[in-house]
Every structure is written in structure tokens, then in C-alpha cells.
Amino acid sequence: MQPNKKMIRLLRVALLGICSSIAVAPLVTQYAFAAKAAETQQLSAKVGKPLKQARELMDAKKWKEALAKTKEVAAIENKSPMEETIINEMLAYCMVNLKDYAGAVAVYEKMLAAGQFKKGEEPKRILNMSQIYFALKNYAKAAELGERYLKAVNNDLEVMHQVAQAYYLQNDFVRAEQATQRLIDTAQKQGKVADEDWLKLLMSAQHKQNKKPAVITTLEQLLSHYPNEQYWQDMFTYLLSDSSFSDRQNIIYLRLVKSTGYLQANEYVEMAELSLAVANPGDAKAVLEDGFNKGILGQGDSKERELKLLAMARTQAAEDLQLLPSIEKEAAAKPTGDALIKIGEAYLGHGQYEKAIAAFKGGLAKGGVKIQDEVNINIGIAYMALNKPQEAISAFKTVSSSSPLALMSRLWAIQAAKAK
């Protein structure tokens, strides 16, 4: 998984238009405030006349000339605090319209330090500064001012996202993770589902810190709300990386891949061969027939081999179906449940799901079953096939969080939840 470059590309798309729209809008209001103040306040003659000329140039959208004239006024000594504030508002407004965002935010910094923002407007102005710094790629200042804004307005999800992005783009992945988690937690308290981009940002920050368990948890959330092939392929890689599955467990894994629709031709064959190896020809027959029906199998040089495998599976499945009733009686008479569990697997392979569930539960009730987690997952799979997702989820949740199959069971639960 390589989310870093892709993530940065996604984040930078968000920068487009920030300075040309977000930054200008508050300044329009502030310029209007400054213009009104200039009309109503008592200005000194040395300031009032050239300031009026600057305003006329601004009204005519002659921004370079207006900026030059306003700078002349700014150079006048012994101005009143009100005059300083008005001039700074006009300077910043000219600079933004000239796309000199660095100059505009520098003026903002002076105004903030001098306490020239109206108290009720200060948080918005701080936010405006943060957005400009973000667009200028000064992510440290963007994060600093974004955090300052959030102290005053602590539930602004958009700003929380920008702050998290700013930390990420500074390569401060610890704070990026913390800020993104804060964003997600706040959204959840508001009854909102975490946005896909937030989860991707969180996962990337975790990945950069080599926090594999955390990455898997976040990837599970992405699969729950925004499933796609890439997320599933990433998850399958994680699922297999630290696992040493038995043949039966590999069959459960391949069933999972098949349920997502991403099972490849070689995996169809692998699943069939594994099923034949564990004496479950019904399962082999079913998966091969599905592969042929979908046009995934029976193509190219492997066609003859796959047809032979299908013929073998069909022959053995027919024989198995004839023997199952008598074998089931023998299994029911056994003192432990292992024999009934095998009967359940056979019925599951043959698509007889009610009988499979009964055999699995009967085997577990007898006791002595060493593969209870596998059995409970198979019970959930049978319930899914019967369109009973809630029962399936309940079965998957019986698998202990400490089990080697814990992640497998959670992924099956994600699939079952989609059917609810």
C-alpha cells in the first residue's frame, strides 16, 4: 500500500481556489467596514484626503494604483489607532485583489498582534489567515492558526480537516493522526459518518508510523462505508501477511474473496483443489461451476485442465450426496462433535444451508470441537446464504478478538452488514 503520493495529490486538489475565493470574501466585508468607518470617523486632514483618493482608485478596481496610494498613507506618521486599522484593511484588500496573498497575510499578522480586529470577528479573521497560509503551503502557520480558531469554534469539521492536512503535509504524522481522529470523533458525536477522505488521511498517517493494527482498523472502517477493490486487496494483503492458515481456513478466506467479487481464476482453481483435498467435493463443484458460469474459467490454455477438475468434482459430489445421510447418522452417535462438524462442512459445500447450520450447532453442542472459530464463521456464512444477515453477524461476533481468525470474522461481518 502506498497512500503517501496519492494522498498528497488528493490534499492539494483542495487548495485550488482557496485564496481566490475564501480569502477574498471576509475581506470584502472588512473593506466595507473600513470604508464606512472612514466616512463616519473623524480622520485627520493629512490622512483623510489621500485615503479618499485611495478608496476611489479601489472603487475603480485600479488595484496597483490604489495599493501605492494606500502605502503612501500608511507611511504618514502619528496616525490614530482607528486610522491604522482602516489603512491596514485597505492594504490587505488591495493585496488580495492583486493576488499578493503573502503580503495580505503579513498585514493580517500586524493587525492581529496590534489587536485591530473587532473582538467578535477575530476568530473568522484567524481562520482566514490559516486558509491563506495553507494555500501558500506554510503548513506550520496554517496548523497553528487553525488550532487557535478551533479553541473558539471547536466543532468546525472543515477546519479540523484542514488542520489535520496541515500536520500531514509537514510530515508530522503523530499530530496528523491525532487531529484526524479528533475530527472523526467530533463528526460521530454529531451523528455523521466519517468522510472517506478523513479515513484515508488517518490511515495514511498511521501507515507512515508503521502502526499496522491501527491501519487495519481504519481500513475496516473504509470497507464498511466505502468498499472498493483497492481497499479489499489491501486488506487481503494484511490478512495473509501474518497468517498461517490451514486448508480449511484457506477455504474460508477464499470464500470471503469470492463474496467480494474479486476472486481470480487461479483462486477459483485453488479453492476447488483445497475443497477436494479436505473431502468437500460439493464445495469444489459449486465454485468451479460458478467460475465457468461467469466466464472466469474455461478460457485459454487452462481450459482442458479446469474441465477435468470440474468433471472430477461433479462425480465425487454426486457420490458424497448419496453417502451423507448414513454418515450423518454415524456422526450423531459419536461422543464428540468433530464428525458432525465435517457433515456441516459437506452440507455447506452442497448448498444445503439449513442442514449445515443444524449439523454445526449439533457438533458444537456435543463439545470437544477444537475448531470452534472456524465453525462459527461457517455458521455465519450459511446464514448469509439464507439471507439472514443479522444471524450471520451474531455468529461472526462469537469469534474471540484474540483468535487468529478474529480479523477474518470481522471482515465477514462487514460483508453481512451490507446485506442488512
Q: Which structural class matches the secondary elements?
A: mainly alpha
Share in β-strands: under 5%
What is the succession of H and E elements?
Answer: HHHHHHHHHHHHHHHHHHHHHHH
Largest sheet: none
Gross geometry? elongated
Domain tally: 2
- Backbone CA Rg: 33 Å
Low-confidence spans: 1-25
CATH architecture heading of the largest domain: Alpha Horseshoe
Q: Report the count of strand segments.
A: 0
Spatial separation of the terminal alpha carbons: 30 Å
Signal peptide: 1-25
Keywords: Signal
InterPro entries: TPR-like_helical_dom_sf, TPR_rpt
Protein name: Tetratricopeptide repeat protein
Describe it.
The protein is mostly helical and 420 residues long. It folds into two domains: 3-154, Serine Threonine Protein Phosphatase 5, Tetratricopeptide repeat; 241-418, Alpha Horseshoe (Serine Threonine Protein Phosphatase 5, Tetratricopeptide repeat). Helices cover 77% and strands 0% of the residues. The chain has helices at 3-13, 18-22, 24-40, 45-59, 63-74, 81-97, 101-114, 122-135, 139-152, 157-169, 173-189, 196-208, 212-225, 229-241, 247-260, 265-277, 281-293, 303-332, 338-350, 353-366, 372-385, 389-397, 406-418. Helix 21 (372-385) packs antiparallel against helix 22 (389-397). It is elongated. The two termini are 30 Å apart. The model is unreliable at 1-25 (pLDDT under 50).
